[in-house]
Design a protein that fits this description.
Low-confidence stretches: none
EC number: 1.1.1.49
Shape: globular
Strand content: 15-25%
CATH topology of the largest domain: Dihydrodipicolinate Reductase, domain 2
Largest sheet: 9 strands, mixed
Function: Catalyzes the oxidation of glucose 6-phosphate to 6-phosphogluconolactone.
Bound molecules: NADPH dihydro-nicotinamide-adenine-dinucleotide phosphate, ligand LXAUTJHC
Structural class: alpha/beta
InterPro entries: G6P_DH, G6P_DH_AS, G6P_DH_C, G6P_DH_NAD-bd, NAD(P)-bd_dom_sf
Number of domains: 2
Radius of gyration: 24 Å
Helix content: 25-40%
Catalytic activity: D-glucose 6-phosphate + NADP(+) = 6-phospho-D-glucono-1,5-lactone + NADPH + H(+)
CATH class of the largest domain: Alpha Beta
GO molecular function, one term: NADP binding
CATH superfamily of the largest domain: Dihydrodipicolinate Reductase, domain 2
Strand order of the largest sheet: 14-13-12-11-7-10-9-8-15
Mean pLDDT: 94
């Protein structure tokens, strides 16, 4: 089942790195699903580009395999797959040399949107940008899509921004953070700014603290080399968790338009305080339950890279002064669970007495799996036992509440269509990315200077005990299934 939508303008989507892992697992299936939904107008094309000497037919075969593996039931419909494949082309292009550029140029059609997706190593961005310009491939409706990682630190991110700015206008650059394309993440904005109910209470006066957890059961899989140089802080916190924090904490933008939203997010990042060393716990998974250790996975018996991080931070602004934000993310944890929990303060006075129990309302925004939003409300425990209080959930499971139309498109489906529509709201601006690095860098430099080693934790566990102790010292507990 795919959500049907009106077609976007006619486009050519050129995927540099079209034969790579990301294209195979995410980009091609996402485009196919949008095709099935009727969102790709007749004549729109996907053009795969990479060095290998393939024909259209070879690439179509690659696309068929990708769809059968990653596009679910839709890919069982062979006539759909074959009709889609007729929109698919391939050019052999070298980002670092002259090969293929004239051919690519010759393939382009005037008067349609051109999106150039850089799904390659960031070391190739410069060559691609230069050649796109030299071959006059950019028209007034052209965009470039840039994958993560966007830099390794502030300095490299600034250099990358400067490099891109030499060739493209900021309005043409779409920096992907796929978390922003997740349906529930967008719903977070709808819930906050589409209801009168929450916003008056959305501040330090009523909110005790906020938790953001993004836990994965997978390890680093085949990405050991990249991950060794990144770790959880650069891989997840600097971008995905930061974006979630922004959306939960930002002021209401005046309009739902790209710059209004990104201006507000930027203010949040700039308001982040430095993180004290004792408010950070780094961990590294060890072998357990038949699973390999992190060090085995990355083939480095001395690795000090973190596969888990938990930290407490504050926002230095009027709305949030005094409200801690607890962030944690890790690989090889006991469950796949991404959620944000907003824990409200207790009522100021316990009219039913302490023996009735006191409770905090909690708003839980579940990103994955099973997207939904739950509000914990305190009621009387039923029965004749007197006034005892109990929490019950007011549940907004999207699938139950909205039926089949709640079927969420994958983040890449949404984001690729936004690129074609020319809507940058869910993409990161240059200053946002740099501000995120400016906050991240001193934290990393701090633990490097102290020589801190990550704490070991068992694969498929809740992470290091120190993370539990960190929040417990504040008289609080991690929420959700991992605690
Ligand atoms: N895979 C993932 O899950 C994720 C990946 N990313 C990012 O996406 C980008 C791509 O990752 P991924 O797909 O995994 O990488 P892969 O190594 O699987 O693919 C790299 C692609 O680049 C092509 N390529 C390499 N050199 C050149 C060149 N000189 N000119 C033209 N094409 C070239 C390769 O094809 P050929 O060898 O034929 O040229 C291949 O298609 C990276 O920046 C990565 O960090 C981001 C999030 C998740
Ligand atoms: O960007 C990344 O995200 C994935 C997690 O994405 P999700 O959509 O499956 O939650 C993570 O595994 C990867 O390490 C990171 O680079």
């Amino acid at each position: 089942m795919v959500s049907r939508t009106i077609p976007v303008d006619l486009f050519d989507l050129v995927v540099f790195g079209g034969t790579g892992d990301l294209a195979r697992r995410k980009i091609l299936p996402a485009l196919f699903k949008r095709f099935c939904s009727g969102q790709m107008a007749d004549g729109a094309r996907l053009i795969g580009a990479s060095r290998r000497d393939w024909s259209d037919a070879d690439y179509r075969e690659f696309v068929r395999k990708s769809l059968s593996e990653f596009a679910g039931e839709l890919a069982l419909d062979r006539s759909l797959v074959e009709t889609f494949c007729r929109c698919v082309h391939y050019v052999s292009v070298d980002a670092n040399g002259p090969r293929g550029w004239d051919e690519l140029s010759g393939l382009m059609v005037a008067d349609r949107v051109r999106a150039f997706y850089f799904s390659v190593d960031p070391g190739l961005f410069s060559g691609l940008s230069m050649r796109l310009q030299d071959h006059e491939l950019m028209n007034e409706q052209s965009r470039v899509v840039v994958e993560k990682p966007f830099g390794h630190d502030l300095e490299t991110a600034q250099a990358l921004n400067a490099e891109l700015a030499q060739h493209f206008d900021e309005s043409q650059i779409y920096r992907i953070d796929h978390y922003l394309g997740k349906e529930t993440v967008q719903n977070l904005m709808a819930v906050r700014f589409g209801n009168m109910l929450f916003e008056p209470l959305w501040n330090a006066q009523y909110i005790d603290h906020i938790q953001i957890t993004v836990a994965e059961t997978v390890g680093v899989d085949g990405r050991g080399e990249y991950y060794e140089s990144a770790g959880a802080m650069r891989d997840m916190v600097q971008n995905h968790l930061m974006q979630l924090l922004c959306l939960i904490a930002m002021e209401p933008p005046t309009f739902f338009d790209p710059d209004a939203v990104r201006d507000e997010k930027l203010k949040v990042i700039r308001a982040l305080s430095n993180v004290e060393p004792h408010h950070i716990v780094r961990g590294q998974y060890t072998a357990a339950d038949g699973a390999t250790s992190y060090r085995e996975d990355v083939d480095n018996p001395r690795s000090r890279t973190e596969s888990f991080i938990a930290l407490k931070c504050h926002l230095n602004n009027w709305r949030w002064a005094g409200t801690p934000f607890y962030l944690r993310t890790g690989k090889r944890m006991s469950e796949r669970d991404s959620e944000i929990t907003v824990v409200f303060k207790e009522t100021p006075h316990a009219i039913f007495g302490q023996e009735a129990g006191r409770h905090n309302n909690e708003l839980t925004i579940q990103l994955q799996p099973d997207e939904g939003i739950t509000l914990g409300v305190t009621i009387k425990d039923p029965g004749p036992g007197g006034m005892r209080l109990v929490d019950v959930p007011l549940d907004m499971s999207f699938a139950e509440a909205l039926g089949p139309s709640a079927d969420s498109p994958d983040a890449y489906e949404r984001l690729i269509m936004d690129v074609i529509r020319g809507d940058q709201t869910l993409f990161m601006r240059n200053d946002e990315v740099e501000a995120a690095w400016a906050w991240t860098d001193p934290i990393i430099r701090g633990w490097q200077a102290r020589g801190d080693a990550p704490k070991p934790y068992d694969s498929y566990s809740a992470g290091p005990d120190d993370a539990t102790m960190m929040i417990r010292r504040d008289g609080r507990e991690w929420r959700g299934v991992i605690n």
